[in-house]
TrEMBL record:
This is Carbohydrate ABC transporter permease. Keywords: Cell membrane, Membrane, Transmembrane, Transmembrane helix, Transport. Pfam families: BPD_transp_1 (PF00528). Residues 70-262 form the ABC transmembrane type-1 domain. It comes from the Bacteria. InterPro entries: BP-dep_ABC_trans_perm (IPR050901), MetI-like (IPR000515), MetI-like_sf (IPR035906). Belongs to the binding-protein-dependent transport system permease family. Its main location: membrane.
């Protein structure tokens, strides 16, 4: 116990320091959103606003179409998340259950593809979407997000599939169930935490993504929220700090709400009640 207590205290201290490190930017952003202009220009900034105001939020909504941009982002993110899960689930099942050279090669390619930078992909993607006449379109952006999220979704779901005992699928096969019926009725329900986590990853990635949306969407009515946030920065590079912070706070809310609603599903046991000892 004597040797374990210092180590445990050190772990909790490191965890607390990490949480503080993660929380400080958001706290500063939230504080900035409620500060009046004279406090934003102060030479001695404070953590908490001395005279809180909602003027920055009113100005942000008055200057830019934030609601329309948020709806665009929500539509794109939900569509990308649903399509990524629908495609990745059966594909991950095949990769996890088929121990062939092709399956191993595909798995290796999935891991390697995560190292590709955005800049390397944007020109080929632009040319492909141009040939498909999907430039400056919401479906084209959704397609890009689905393709971008699929490698990680496949890798993530394949790990969940491997955690499902084969005995359950063998029992279903004895009862006469085929591969598709086994996947839908036996394996997929046990993958619920993994599917939810994968969908959350795809949603948050699409919601926060900026580079592809900036390049592919030119019509103002179709632009997503991260692109609209750049409109609070002037041509000289000077940011309208108060409204920008207010709009950025609103942009972070959906991700936080979605995670808060489904975090129990993510942290829940994958096989609770599935196998009795």
């Amino acid at each position: 116990m004597r040797t374990g207590t210092p180590a445990r205290v050190g772990q909790y201290t490191a965890l607390l320091a990490y949480l503080v490190f993660l929380a400080l930017p958001f706290i500063w952003l939230l504080s900035t959103a409620f500060k009046p202009p004279r406090e934003l220009g102060s030479l001695h900034p404070t953590w908490l606003p001395k005279d809180p105001t909602l003027a920055n939020f009113r100005q942000a909504f008055a200057e830019q179409p934030l609601l329309r941009a948020a709806l665009n982002s929500l539509l794109v993110a939900l569509a990308a998340a649903v399509l990524a899960v629908l495609i990745a689930t059966p594909a991950a099942y095949v990769l996890a259950r088929q121990r062939t050279r092709l399956a191993r090669a595909v798995t290796g390619w999935v891991v390697v593809s995560q190292a590709f930078p955005f800049v390397l992909l944007i020109i080929p993607l632009f040319l492909v979407l141009k040939n498909l006449r999907l430039i400056d379109s919401v479906p084209g952006l959704v397609l890009v997000y689905v393709v971008w999220a699929l490698p990680f979704a496949l890798w993530m779901l394949a790990g969940y599939v491997r955690a499902v005992p084969r005995e359950l699928e063998e029992a279903a096969a004895v009862d006469g169930a085929g591969r598709v019926r086994t996947l839908v009725s036996v394996t997929a329900p046990l993958l619920a935490p993994g599917i939810v986590a994968t969908g959350l990853f795809a949603f948050v990635t699409a919601w926060n993504e900026f580079f592809f949306a900036l390049v592919l969407l030119k019509t103002p009515e179709k632009q997503t929220l991260p692109v609209v946030l750049t409109h609070f920065v002037g041509a000289e590079g000077v940011a309208d700090l108060g409204p920008l912070a207010a709009a950025a706070c609103l942009a972070t809310l959906p991700s936080l709400v979605v995670f808060a609603l489904i975090q129990r599903r993510i942290t829940g046991s994958l096989l609770t009640g599935a196998v009795k000892s």
